[in-house]
Amino acid sequence: MTSQAYLDTIKAKTGLGPDDFRAAAAAKGLLGPDVKTARIVAWLKEDYGLGTGHAMALVSALGQVPGQRLPVEEKINAQFSGAKAHWRATYDALLAHARQIGEVNLAPTNSYISLLRGTKKFAIVQVTAGRLDLGLKLPGVNGADALEASGSWNSMVTHRVRLADPAELTDDVLAWLRRAYDAA
């Protein structure tokens, strides 16, 4: 779901838009660089009955997510800093393959990178020091080999591929990526 879709749903549910929430947050003293995201999310859940995803969309719209105004490339670079740096070449190869299929837009967060075909998410990439996880949106597809149901890992995708070694970015994995792109 895009941020705008979240905001549209919030407006339908509450009758309030981002400017209304900004005014309410300001009145409660919830705006500013020292206010923690969790405090704003808790307020939105308590007072408006919003879920975490919807609350985070509002936090972002309020300008309260740390680092949200960084350029896309800086956010991506941050994903591959420190002990995760060795995954950058694998990510670059994966992205290059996806861009051979067609146009790919990137929407990085502080914890993962969404790959979009237009505005439709077809994959996400999340890295740790020991693994690169590729989430794929493949509704109705049964898993095979390395392809597993995403389960509670990330609800925005249906399947997950865990790469523990850059060599595991195989032709089969790239074929699943293509299938997710085509389905978007």
Globular, elongated, flat, extended or rod-shaped: what is the shape? elongated
Number of E strands: 6
Q: Largest beta sheet, briefly?
A: 6 strands, antiparallel
How are strands sequenced across the largest beta sheet? 1-2-3-4-6-5
Distance between the termini: 12 Å
- SSE pattern, N- to C-terminal: HHHHHHEEEEEEH
Percent of residues in β-strands: 15-25%
Q: From the alpha-carbon coordinates, what is the Rg to the nearest angstrom?
A: 18 Å
Q: Mean pLDDT score, rounded?
A: 87
Keywords:
184 residues, alpha+beta, elongated, DUF5655 domain-containing protein, DUF4287, six-stranded antiparallel β-sheet, DUF5655
Structure description:
The chain has 7 helices and 6 strands. It has about 180 residues and is of the alpha+beta class. It folds into 2 domains: about 60 residues, no CATH class; about 110 residues. The chain has a 6-stranded antiparallel sheet with strand order 1-2-3-4-6-5. The protein starts with a helix and ends with a helix. The mean pLDDT is about 85.
Summarize the structure.
With 184 residues, the protein is an alpha+beta fold. It has helices at 3-14, 18-27, 37-48, 52-61, 72-79, 88-101, 171-183; strands at residues 105-108, 113-117, 120-127, 132-136, 148-149, 159-163.
